Every structure is written in C-alpha cells, then in structure tokens.
Amino acid sequence: MNSTPPPSLLQTLREIQTPDAAAWLPLAPGWWLLAGILVTALLLLIIHGYCRGALRRAALAELEQIRRCYAAEPRSDRLAGELSMLLRRLVLVRFPREEVAALTGTAWLQFLDHACQRRLFSQGAGLALANHPYDPDSDCDSERLLQLVETWIRCLR
C-alpha cells in the first residue's frame, strides 16, 4: 500500500495557458477593402489639389505675361480689359456659368469680392475693371490693380 497522501487540489492545477498572439497577416477581406478605399480617396485628393494648383499656376503665368506686355506698352485701358478677361475666364472655370456669365459692372466686382471674401474690387483700384475699359480717361492705378488681381488669384480656393 502506498503511504503517500493524495495530492492536494492546488498541486493538481496547471499553469495558465495564454493563447498565441493573433497574426496581423493575412488581413481579413474587409481590411483590404478599407485600405483600397483609403488609398483611392488619398489619390483623388492629391489629383484634385494638383488640378486646382495647375489652374492657379496657369492664371498667375498669364498674369505675369500681361504684366510684361503692360511694361512694354503702358496702356491702362488695355490692361484693365485683359485683367478683366483673365478673371472672367478663371471664374467661368471655377463657378457655375449660370451664376457668373451675365455679371457686369458693380455686380461683377461684388462677385469678385465675395469669391475671395475680401473687398478688393468694389472699392479703390479694383473699380477700374468695371470703368476703365470703357472710359480710358478715368483714373487707374495700374500697379495696384495688378496686385489686386494677383491677390485674388492666390486667395481663390
């Protein structure tokens, strides 16, 4: 007969077995789908930002060409007309045609102010865009007008 006492319950317990760490790969199909959606959205944002920047760069390049032409032949009536056409083309690309195509005079200047959220054109040198192409004898601060147009192009989002 065996004279050893039976083991106590505590002695029969084993160490706690922890499960193995979950593997990250392979990912479930839902994670791959989410990753694909995020990458696509990021690419679309980058392309959208680049296109907007390309429009701004093209407008600034054209503004620089207008500035050089004005320096070669300083005619303020022609300058005001060219700046107005540049702004009009830029606005027609960025805003619905129905809203902006028919704007003239004060309404056009107020729209330009509203689009940039600054009062650049309805006061001061910006008034020349509405008046000067049709009244060449009116007062026009050409350098200030060029600066206003450049500021407007840069602030347009």
Sequence-ordered SSE layout with sheet pairings:
Layout: H1 9-12, H2 29-72, H3 76-94, H4 97-100, H5 105-116, H6 128-131, H7 142-155
Helix pairs in contact: 2-3, 2-7, 3-7
| Total helical elements | 7
Helix % is: 55-70%
- Count of beta strands: 0
Identify the quaternary structure here: single chain
Q: Name the poorly predicted regions.
A: none
What coarse outline follows from CA principal-axis ratios?
rod-shaped
Mean pLDDT: 84
Secondary-structure element order, N to C: HHHHHHH
Radius of gyration: 34 Å
Largest sheet at a glance? none
Cα separation of the termini: 95 Å
Beta fraction of the residues?
under 5%
Alpha-beta classification: mainly alpha
3D architecture notes:
The protein has helices spanning 9-12, 29-72, 76-94, 97-100, 105-116, 128-131, 142-155. It is mostly helical. The longest helix has 44 residues, at 29-72. It is rod-shaped and about 125 Å long.
Question: Brief description of this entry?
Answer:
This protein has 157 residues and is an all-alpha fold.
Index terms:
single chain; mainly alpha; 157 residues
